[in-house]
């Protein structure tokens, strides 16, 4: 059987906004979820289909590729329908009156003709009143998602970042109808929506972790009929630091020491995210031994508690070899109380 067009699966127009796609997906997912339809094989299949479609259409890049190449992927070449149209399918594709799908040329935004079918109630809600329609009165806007790349320093110590937010609004020229006079609207090329960017300053709280989410009230989808705007949820991606590594709220770093410092003990400078700290290396410190500086790590963004700084010692052997150096090393060699490789296995 021919694969159905993803837009058709979700029941949205080709020019649908991110929010509309998400709304359609949520509505369908609620209706088709296996928990709601135990043992219903058809619903299960539809549910999978809906999820697959959403995976592609929610992702700006995947969606663009799909718009251009359809299910076939970029290798299919020109002339292949943008909507996954299969001319061999009985009835010429998906039926149900999706005009123009698979034409492979002309406007990338197909006109959406919906007739009726099992998804009627969903379409009714989506497109304002085929069945039931939107309730009157203010409609709050939906939430939006975004991602932001944050330097390690700003994530750990706090800072601000600028986020460029792409938002889709009704085309000001045609008012969202996609048409002007007898032809398609020149501003939005018939889509009815245009994209605009907004610069948003995002405050990064001290201690923000990779994958952390910052909520910005009122920066989601705008509401309708005077309803309040939704919220924006920004997922933080922290750029790794070349030296410091964060594990939970602890910060890790490696500190090289000389043979003498490791053997006799020393006080050394240890870099932490809060600056350099004087710290002790006890006598007879081994390479890869770890030490902890309490409260010198990252702040837990929820509890406000500080993690620790953990430094790992690396014993550096001088690169210059001299007879005097070898004599000193021989002296050290006589001080081991056991064979250093005594605990190694003989093989597998
Ligand atoms: Zn327009």
Set down the secondary structure blueprint:
Elements: H1 6-10, H2 18-32, H3 41-57, H4 60-69, H5 120-126, E1 144-150, H6 152-157, E2 159-170, E3 179-180, E4 183-184, E5 193-204, E6 213-216, E7 232-238, E8 245-247, E9 250-258, H7 259-264, E10 266-272, E11 275-281, E12 290-293, E13 309-316, H8 323-333
Parallel strand pairs: 1-7, 9-13
Antiparallel strand pairs: 2-5, 3-4, 6-7, 8-9, 10-11, 12-13
Helix pairs in contact: 2-3
Structure characterization notes:
By secondary structure, the protein is an alpha+beta fold. It folds into three domains: 6-126, Helix Hairpins (Orthogonal Bundle), CATH 1.10.287; 144-238, Urease metallochaperone UreE, N-terminal domain (HSP40/DNAj peptide-binding domain, Sandwich), CATH 2.60.260.20; 245-332, Urease metallochaperone UreE, N-terminal domain (HSP40/DNAj peptide-binding domain). It contains eight helices and 13 strands. A hairpin with a 2-residue loop joins strand 10 (266-272) and strand 11. The structure holds zinc ion (ZN). The site of zinc ion (ZN) has 8 residues, from loops.
């Amino acid at each position: 059987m021919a694969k159905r067009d993803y837009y058709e699966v979700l029941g949205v127009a080709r020019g649908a906004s991110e929010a509309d796609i998400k709304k359609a997906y949520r509505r369908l997912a609620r209706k088709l979820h296996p928990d709601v339809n135990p043992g219903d094989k058809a619903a299960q299949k539809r549910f999978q289909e809906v999820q697959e479609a959403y995976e592609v259409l929610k992702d700006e890049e995947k969606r663009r590729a799909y718009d251009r190449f359809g299910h076939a992927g970029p290798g299919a070449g020109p002339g292949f329908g943008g909507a996954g149209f299969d001319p061999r399918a009985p009835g010429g594709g998906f039926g149900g009156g999706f005009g123009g799908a698979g034409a492979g040329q002309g406007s990338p935004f197909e006109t959406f003709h919906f007739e009726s079918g099992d998804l009627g109630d969903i379409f009714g809600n989506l497109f304002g009143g085929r069945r039931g329609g939107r309730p009157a009165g203010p409609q709050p806007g939906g939430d939006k998602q975004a991602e932001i790349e944050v330097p390690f320093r700003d994530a750990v110590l706090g800072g601000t970042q600028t986020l460029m937010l792409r938002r889709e609004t009704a085309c000001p020229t045609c008012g969202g109808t996609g048409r002007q006079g007898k032809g398609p609207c020149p501003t939005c090329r018939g889509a009815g929506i245009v994209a605009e960017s907004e610069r948003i300053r995002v405050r990064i709280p001290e201690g923000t972790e990779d994958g952390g989410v910052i909520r910005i009230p009122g920066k989601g989808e705008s509401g309708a009929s005077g309803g309040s705007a939704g919220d924006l949820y920004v997922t933080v991606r922290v750029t790794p630091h070349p030296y410091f590594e964060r594990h939970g709220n602890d910060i890790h770093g490696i500190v090289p020491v000389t043979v003498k410092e490791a053997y006799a003990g020393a006080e050394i400078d240890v870099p932490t995210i809060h600056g350099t700290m004087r710290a002790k290396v006890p006598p007879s410190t081994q390479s890869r031994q770890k030490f902890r500086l309490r409260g010198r790590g990252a702040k837990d963004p929820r509890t406000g508690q500080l993690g620790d700084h953990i430094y790992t010692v690396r014993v550096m052997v001088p690169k210059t070899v001299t007879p005097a150096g070898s004599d000193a090393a021989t002296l050290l060699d006589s001080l081991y109380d056991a064979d250093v490789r005594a605990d190694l296995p003989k093989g597998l």
